[in-house]
Specification:
This protein has 115 residues and is α+β, with helices and mostly antiparallel strands. It contains three helices and five strands. A five-stranded antiparallel sheet has the order 1-2-3-4-5.
Length: 115
């Protein structure tokens, strides 16, 4: 991952702190505040995984993929939602900052991330 970002030193410096920033932002989300999501490395980014409290995807309430956030060129961030039917990530947005990306995932008015 660091090699892919070698041309963007500012992003490369903050990469180790991204999982903690994601978890901190998730604590302020508007929906499903009582579940405890986790963050794990996924390819060149970070995946948010959470119990499926609505049971819309997993009737047993097991863990499901919520979002995948990837650093992109020039300090932007790509935000993906999980298409659970196709078992694939779908690009939903490209933001100018990690904070903006996290706000999209936490607010989620269209329930693209938290089904």
């Amino acid at each position: 991952m660091a090699a892919a970002l070698a041309g963007n030193a500012a992003v490369a410096v903050v990469l180790p702190f991204v999982p903690a920033r994601i978890l901190h932002a998730l604590s302020a989300r508007r929906r499903y505040k009582y579940v405890h999501p986790r963050v794990e490395a996924e390819g060149a980014g970070w995946k948010i995984v959470s119990p499926n409290c609505s049971r819309n995807i997993d009737p047993a309430g097991g863990e499901i993929d919520i979002a995948w956030i990837v650093a992109a060129p020039r300090g932007s961030w790509r935000v993906h939602a999980r298409d659970h039917r196709r078992q694939a990530w779908k690009l939903r947005d490209t933001t100018t900052s990690l904070d903006e990306a996290l706000e999209r995932v936490c607010a989620d008015p269209l329930r693209e991330y938290w089904p």
